[in-house]
Design brief:
It contains nine helices and 14 strands. It is an alpha/beta fold and about 260 residues long. The strands form three sheets. Strands 1, 5, 6, 7, 8 and 14 form a six-stranded mixed β-sheet that branches.
Amino acid sequence: MKKIFILFFAIGAIFTSCNSKSKNKQEVVRVAIEGGWKPYNFVDSEGNITGFDVDVINAIVEKTPGISLKIEPTPWDGMLVALGAGRFDLVANEIKKNPAREKQFLYAAEPYNYDYPALIFRNDTDIKSAKDLFGKNVIVGGGSSYAEWLEKFNKENGDKINIVYAGDTATAAIFAEVLSGRADVTVDSPVAAGVFINERKEPLAYIPADPDLLNPAYLIFAKNKKGERIKALFDKGLEEIRADGTLSKLAVKWFGSDTTVKSK
């Protein structure tokens, strides 16, 4: 009888151990971010990946048991290609909607932020509106929502702007092209421009490219079974951090105001 009891006890211990390991096992979500676009996402002086986008996905994961993040800084011009190839499960990089991307990727149910394209130029340059770009060299990240706006505006106005594409060049390096005079203007986030100007005391200024334009930004996921599963979890988590005020607090922390609601 004693031997039988010991045997059952041992089997029970094995099942308990297996159950415990199963519960503790976490699904890894592979995340691509640019890593050079302060304050959205960047590598700090200690080598840590940080910024608004990073805080948002970490806050969502805190509400979502069973998953963990593997965040990898990835050049902008290869990020979406890698997501489409299945190398990543999620891109957290203020992605805007366009028809081609909507066919290729899964978008979160709701945006997590809003921004607008800004014209950024040396403060001794006479630019008061987008029409002052005619005849100028304008540098922009290829494939970005800012490039899409610029290309559309240029086409509608007789292709009078010389567009220069920056490839995977970091935002700070693009701003440096404007400061040096190699480019006259860039189109980027007003938040990123403001942080760059304030921190470095550089002679740049910026204005809205289109005063009426405000673009929602989304998390996007790989269009596969895992992507569908992760999207459902992140949709729920995003809804929770919006409802409890965490999302708004993160925007105020990084931007000084709540940019997660549709107001300018």
